[in-house]
Amino acid sequence: MNQIMTLLNKELVESLKTFKLLAIIITFLIIGVLSPFIVLIMPDILESAVVDSGIEMVIPEPTADQSYMQFFSHINQLGFIVFLLLFGGILTNEISRRTLINLLTKGLKRHNVVLSKVLFILIIWTVIYFMSAMITYLYTVYFFDETVHHLPAALSTTWLYGIFLISLIFLFSAAFKNFIAVIFSIIGVVVVMMILTVFPSIEMFVPQHLLSLNMELIIGEKDLSDTLTPVAVTLSASILVFILSIFIFNKKTLV
Amino acid sequence: MLSESDWIIFLIPLILLQVILMITALVLIIRQTHFKYFNKIIWIVIVLLLNIIGPVLYFILERR
Amino acid sequence: MDILKIENLSKSFNDKNVIDNLSLIVRENEIYGFIGSNGSGKTTTMNMILGQLEPNGGDIYVCGEKVNFGNTETNKYIGYLPDVPEFYNYMTAPQYLRLCAKLTDLKKNERESRIDYLLSIVGLSGERSKIKAYSRGMKQRLGVAQALIHQPELLICDEPTSALDPKGRMELLKILKDITAETTVIFSTHVLTDVERISDYAGILYEGNIVKEIDLSKTDFGDKGIDLKLDSNEYKSLSERIELSHLQGDNYRAVDISLRDLYQLLYTLDIQPSQLELSKKSLEDIYLEVTR
Predict the structure, then answer these.
(1) What pTM, to 2 d.p., does this model score?
(2) Domain boundary among C197, C215, C233
């Protein structure tokens, strides 16, 4: 426990000194503000386009649903990528730069290295994700009167998907030695999951399904009970992957 | 339709956040003498042209 | 007590035996020099002692406890200085040592005094710059300090002087010599003068095994022969009686003959060498002999 707290503090200092924490916070703040903004300026943009072309058409009013839809797509397209770039190397950087050798050879437990990094990255992800979501939420309730369905559940599914991606960071960091291999392996897994979600029979058992489920919850097409299977699958998959990562890292040759 | 004050409550944070990230990266680039990848000029151009991703690339490649 | 005991250790990479049935004992408060050429398996052996590399066979005991690959309890007894120690560049030396201290069993109230003490013995007291700005020599000295933070029973140094200039090398050897009061030291090197300067024992690693162990407290490693300075006539008459090997100039070496017999012979032949010297074997001679 002592070792974990010490390393947790070290991770925090490191992410501050390397400006990774600043970069991830700013990125997620921007996503939070940008998402409702794009929805609100869309009619203006459409209108100017329509006026220029001279075509008569009715421009639909923006809705609160769209605000969250924008939020989810920004997290998927920008948020996850920036997060993986900034924190995907949290373990491999230390392996390739051999900075762990000094610490491990004086009695630091290997599982404490992984646990402290897992804990740190989970805290960062949770804080920045819900901070970003909160900003989109505040703008959305200010500009739109209507409410959406199952908002906390919808937000949580994407958060859980993020945790699954984080577990993959650790699995591939323990298995391989460099950052590039980790990133490409994660991309590989995501591509495979996307292919699997095409088949309706197994869709429920693929974590990727959480990313389409969130919008269906917001617009009220799906109910909370529909989230049970994918949430249970993703959660248990993540925990298994975390445990597996620790086992692999414990027996890894680090020289 | 957004009013002018509505625009401001979006644009001020958006611009401010991007500027903070960009300025931080630029200050570090200007003070840095040896680069692992590229050189000073190329990094300045990358950070100025690529919003968010530019500074992020600089942080992960040069300041790890 | 045996601080380190290695029994029949073996390790192969891609079917090539790097370490082949190696056994070794290091006792308390010794300085043990581990001599071997590059690629002879010194680092491989050290990594197995540290539990960072899995042996193919054999056992290692540190302070009587068995080393297990991966998470080994024995590392709390060991301080390790890698050949190129890597630190967190954004920290200062005291910050780094504080991190190390917190990860070990060192008591909280002893931390700061231990850090101050170690910084002073490695000559880094008052050094305020970040590790990023350190020279190789400074990093090596900080490496010694971090390795000693938890008062280990055994300090293992991998080629500690190889990247240093002569001044840095002398400083580091002095530090290693000075700390034997509190710990046992094993260091690997391919520089024999380093071993001669500070070690009590030396083991020569060759083809995966310790081919020779040398007690350096005994300065006499045996005779090489008797060196004589002779003019051409003297050489001619003496070489008819015994075998002489030519060294350089007028210098010759008589081997396989005792000093007494040689004196007798010189007296008989009425030869007065302008110089006569008993040539002793150096560590280098032994090294070259056993690794031939």
Answers:
(1) 0.88
(2) C215
